[in-house]
Amino acid sequence: MKKRLEMLEQLQEIDLRIDSLKNSQNSLHGELNGIEQGLVAAREEAAELDSRIAQVEQEKTEQEGLLATEQENIRRSESHMKEIKTNKEFQAIGREIAAARKQAAELEEQILQKVGQIEQLRGESTGRSASLAELEQNTAQRSGEKLAEISAIQQDIDADLARREEITKHLPASLLKRYTLLREQRRGQALAIARDGYCLGCNMNLPPQLYNSLFRGDEMISCPHCQRVLILKQQAG
Ligand SMILES: [Zn+2]
Q: How far, in Å, is the centroid of ligand 1 from the Cα of 195?
Protein backbone atom coordinates (compact mmCIF):
# COMPACT_ATOMS: atom_id res chain seq x y z
CA MET A 1 0.00 0.00 0.00
CA LYS A 2 2.84 2.32 0.88
CA LYS A 3 4.39 1.61 -2.49
CA ARG A 4 1.14 2.46 -4.24
CA LEU A 5 0.87 5.71 -2.33
CA GLU A 6 4.40 6.61 -3.34
CA MET A 7 3.54 5.85 -6.93
CA LEU A 8 0.42 7.98 -6.73
CA GLU A 9 2.49 10.77 -5.29
CA GLN A 10 4.93 10.52 -8.18
CA LEU A 11 2.02 10.41 -10.59
CA GLN A 12 0.56 13.59 -9.16
CA GLU A 13 3.94 15.31 -9.32
CA ILE A 14 4.24 14.37 -12.99
CA ASP A 15 0.65 15.35 -13.76
CA LEU A 16 1.03 18.75 -12.10
CA ARG A 17 4.22 19.32 -14.06
CA ILE A 18 2.42 18.36 -17.29
CA ASP A 19 -0.42 20.75 -16.35
CA SER A 20 2.03 23.58 -15.90
CA LEU A 21 3.92 22.71 -19.11
CA LYS A 22 0.61 22.75 -20.99
CA ASN A 23 -0.20 26.13 -19.48
CA SER A 24 3.13 27.44 -20.72
CA GLN A 25 2.38 26.03 -24.16
CA ASN A 26 -1.03 27.68 -24.15
CA SER A 27 0.36 31.08 -23.30
CA LEU A 28 3.00 30.63 -26.02
CA HIS A 29 0.21 29.84 -28.47
CA GLY A 30 -1.49 33.02 -27.32
CA GLU A 31 1.68 35.02 -27.93
CA LEU A 32 2.06 33.35 -31.32
CA ASN A 33 -1.47 34.40 -32.23
CA GLY A 34 -0.75 37.94 -31.12
CA ILE A 35 2.36 38.09 -33.29
CA GLU A 36 0.49 36.74 -36.30
CA GLN A 37 -2.45 39.07 -35.69
CA GLY A 38 -0.07 42.02 -35.82
CA LEU A 39 1.01 40.98 -39.29
CA VAL A 40 -2.57 40.38 -40.42
CA ALA A 41 -3.53 43.89 -39.24
CA ALA A 42 -0.53 45.44 -41.02
CA ARG A 43 -1.40 43.59 -44.23
CA GLU A 44 -4.98 44.78 -44.00
CA GLU A 45 -3.83 48.37 -43.58
CA ALA A 46 -1.56 48.05 -46.61
CA ALA A 47 -4.40 46.55 -48.66
CA GLU A 48 -6.71 49.37 -47.56
CA LEU A 49 -4.19 51.94 -48.70
CA ASP A 50 -3.85 50.20 -52.07
CA SER A 51 -7.60 50.14 -52.58
CA ARG A 52 -7.74 53.82 -51.59
CA ILE A 53 -5.17 54.59 -54.30
CA ALA A 54 -7.19 52.58 -56.84
CA GLN A 55 -10.31 54.50 -55.85
CA VAL A 56 -8.68 57.93 -56.25
CA GLU A 57 -7.23 56.80 -59.59
CA GLN A 58 -10.67 55.77 -60.75
CA GLU A 59 -12.12 59.12 -59.68
CA LYS A 60 -9.36 60.86 -61.60
CA THR A 61 -10.11 58.79 -64.72
CA GLU A 62 -13.79 59.70 -64.46
CA GLN A 63 -12.96 63.40 -64.13
CA GLU A 64 -10.62 63.16 -67.12
CA GLY A 65 -13.50 61.67 -69.08
CA LEU A 66 -15.78 64.54 -68.03
CA LEU A 67 -13.09 67.06 -68.91
CA ALA A 68 -12.66 65.54 -72.39
CA THR A 69 -16.42 65.78 -72.91
CA GLU A 70 -16.44 69.38 -71.71
CA GLN A 71 -13.55 70.27 -74.02
CA GLU A 72 -15.30 68.59 -76.92
CA ASN A 73 -18.42 70.64 -76.15
CA ILE A 74 -16.37 73.83 -76.14
CA ARG A 75 -14.79 72.97 -79.51
CA ARG A 76 -18.16 72.14 -81.00
CA SER A 77 -19.73 75.35 -79.71
CA GLU A 78 -16.81 77.41 -80.99
CA SER A 79 -17.09 75.97 -84.48
CA HIS A 80 -20.86 76.43 -84.30
CA MET A 81 -20.33 80.11 -83.55
CA LYS A 82 -19.04 80.73 -87.08
CA GLU A 83 -22.41 79.75 -88.54
CA ILE A 84 -24.44 81.96 -86.26
CA LYS A 85 -26.58 84.67 -87.74
CA THR A 86 -28.27 86.49 -84.87
CA ASN A 87 -26.78 88.36 -82.00
CA LYS A 88 -29.11 86.61 -79.57
CA GLU A 89 -27.91 83.17 -80.62
CA PHE A 90 -24.34 84.38 -80.49
CA GLN A 91 -24.78 85.51 -76.91
CA ALA A 92 -26.47 82.28 -75.90
CA ILE A 93 -23.61 80.18 -77.27
CA GLY A 94 -21.14 82.56 -75.70
CA ARG A 95 -22.73 81.89 -72.32
CA GLU A 96 -22.66 78.14 -72.96
CA ILE A 97 -18.97 78.27 -73.80
CA ALA A 98 -18.20 80.36 -70.72
CA ALA A 99 -20.08 77.91 -68.50
CA ALA A 100 -18.31 74.94 -70.12
CA ARG A 101 -14.91 76.60 -69.67
CA LYS A 102 -15.65 77.25 -66.04
CA GLN A 103 -16.66 73.62 -65.63
CA ALA A 104 -13.52 72.45 -67.44
CA ALA A 105 -11.32 74.66 -65.25
CA GLU A 106 -12.91 73.20 -62.12
CA LEU A 107 -12.35 69.67 -63.42
CA GLU A 108 -8.71 70.46 -64.23
CA GLU A 109 -8.28 71.74 -60.69
CA GLN A 110 -9.86 68.58 -59.24
CA ILE A 111 -7.70 66.36 -61.46
CA LEU A 112 -4.58 68.17 -60.28
CA GLN A 113 -5.65 67.58 -56.69
CA LYS A 114 -6.13 63.87 -57.41
CA VAL A 115 -2.67 63.70 -59.01
CA GLY A 116 -1.20 65.17 -55.83
CA GLN A 117 -3.25 62.88 -53.65
CA ILE A 118 -2.20 59.79 -55.63
CA GLU A 119 1.43 60.82 -55.41
CA GLN A 120 1.18 61.22 -51.66
CA LEU A 121 -0.64 57.91 -51.20
CA ARG A 122 1.89 56.09 -53.37
CA GLY A 123 4.66 57.51 -51.21
CA GLU A 124 2.86 56.22 -48.12
CA SER A 125 2.33 52.86 -49.79
CA THR A 126 6.04 52.53 -50.63
CA GLY A 127 6.96 53.27 -47.02
CA ARG A 128 4.38 50.85 -45.78
CA SER A 129 5.53 48.08 -48.12
CA ALA A 130 9.03 48.44 -46.74
CA SER A 131 7.90 48.26 -43.13
CA LEU A 132 5.54 45.41 -43.97
CA ALA A 133 8.41 43.43 -45.48
CA GLU A 134 10.40 44.09 -42.33
CA LEU A 135 7.46 43.06 -40.16
CA GLU A 136 6.99 39.86 -42.19
CA GLN A 137 10.61 38.91 -41.64
CA ASN A 138 10.43 39.85 -37.97
CA THR A 139 7.17 37.94 -37.52
CA ALA A 140 8.60 34.85 -39.18
CA GLN A 141 11.57 34.96 -36.84
CA ARG A 142 9.55 35.55 -33.68
CA SER A 143 6.94 32.95 -34.64
CA GLY A 144 9.74 30.49 -35.32
CA GLU A 145 11.16 31.14 -31.86
CA LYS A 146 7.78 30.62 -30.21
CA LEU A 147 7.21 27.41 -32.19
CA ALA A 148 10.62 26.15 -31.12
CA GLU A 149 9.75 26.87 -27.48
CA ILE A 150 6.40 25.11 -27.88
CA SER A 151 8.07 22.08 -29.39
CA ALA A 152 10.79 22.00 -26.68
CA ILE A 153 8.03 21.99 -24.07
CA GLN A 154 6.29 19.21 -25.99
CA GLN A 155 9.43 17.10 -25.64
CA ASP A 156 9.29 17.60 -21.87
CA ILE A 157 5.61 16.68 -21.88
CA ASP A 158 6.31 13.56 -23.93
CA ALA A 159 9.07 12.53 -21.53
CA ASP A 160 6.69 13.04 -18.61
CA LEU A 161 3.98 11.07 -20.39
CA ALA A 162 6.41 8.18 -20.84
CA ARG A 163 7.25 8.33 -17.11
CA ARG A 164 3.56 8.50 -16.34
CA GLU A 165 2.90 5.41 -18.47
CA GLU A 166 5.63 3.55 -16.59
CA ILE A 167 3.91 4.30 -13.28
CA THR A 168 0.29 3.79 -14.30
CA LYS A 169 0.90 0.31 -15.66
CA HIS A 170 1.74 -0.77 -12.10
CA LEU A 171 -1.43 0.71 -10.62
CA PRO A 172 -4.85 -0.96 -10.60
CA ALA A 173 -7.35 0.52 -13.02
CA SER A 174 -9.89 1.26 -10.28
CA LEU A 175 -7.33 3.30 -8.35
CA LEU A 176 -6.34 5.20 -11.48
CA LYS A 177 -9.97 5.93 -12.19
CA ARG A 178 -10.45 7.29 -8.68
CA TYR A 179 -7.29 9.37 -9.01
CA THR A 180 -8.37 10.80 -12.38
CA LEU A 181 -11.84 11.65 -11.12
CA LEU A 182 -10.45 13.33 -8.01
CA ARG A 183 -8.05 15.35 -10.11
CA GLU A 184 -10.93 16.57 -12.26
CA GLN A 185 -13.01 17.47 -9.22
CA ARG A 186 -10.22 18.96 -7.13
CA ARG A 187 -8.43 21.30 -9.50
CA GLY A 188 -5.73 18.83 -10.46
CA GLN A 189 -4.90 17.73 -6.91
CA ALA A 190 -6.03 14.18 -6.17
CA LEU A 191 -3.69 13.82 -3.21
CA ALA A 192 -3.28 15.93 -0.14
CA ILE A 193 -0.66 16.05 2.57
CA ALA A 194 -1.79 15.27 6.08
CA ARG A 195 0.20 17.00 8.81
CA ASP A 196 -0.38 17.83 12.48
CA GLY A 197 -3.90 16.42 12.31
CA TYR A 198 -4.87 18.54 9.31
CA CYS A 199 -5.55 17.88 5.64
CA LEU A 200 -3.47 20.48 3.78
CA GLY A 201 -5.69 20.01 0.72
CA CYS A 202 -8.71 21.63 2.35
CA ASN A 203 -7.19 22.83 5.65
CA MET A 204 -9.74 20.91 7.66
CA ASN A 205 -9.12 19.08 10.89
CA LEU A 206 -8.92 15.30 10.45
CA PRO A 207 -10.64 12.99 12.97
CA PRO A 208 -7.89 11.79 15.38
CA GLN A 209 -8.60 8.13 14.78
CA LEU A 210 -8.33 8.58 11.03
CA TYR A 211 -5.18 10.65 11.40
CA ASN A 212 -3.63 7.99 13.63
CA SER A 213 -4.38 5.24 11.16
CA LEU A 214 -2.34 7.13 8.59
CA PHE A 215 0.79 6.28 10.62
CA ARG A 216 0.24 2.59 9.98
CA GLY A 217 0.35 3.23 6.25
CA ASP A 218 -1.40 -0.04 5.46
CA GLU A 219 -4.47 1.39 3.75
CA MET A 220 -5.41 4.19 1.44
CA ILE A 221 -7.24 6.86 3.39
CA SER A 222 -9.22 9.75 2.00
CA CYS A 223 -9.93 13.08 3.65
CA PRO A 224 -13.57 13.00 4.79
CA HIS A 225 -13.95 16.68 3.79
CA CYS A 226 -12.34 16.95 0.34
CA GLN A 227 -12.03 13.21 -0.48
CA ARG A 228 -8.39 13.61 -1.53
CA VAL A 229 -6.13 10.65 -0.84
CA LEU A 230 -4.07 11.55 2.20
CA ILE A 231 -0.29 11.26 2.39
CA LEU A 232 1.26 11.61 5.79
CA LYS A 233 4.13 14.10 5.94
CA GLN A 234 5.10 15.05 9.42
CA GLN A 235 7.87 17.40 8.33
CA ALA A 236 7.65 20.20 5.82
CA GLY A 237 8.91 19.29 2.39
ZN1 LIG B 1 -9.15 17.49 2.80
A: 11
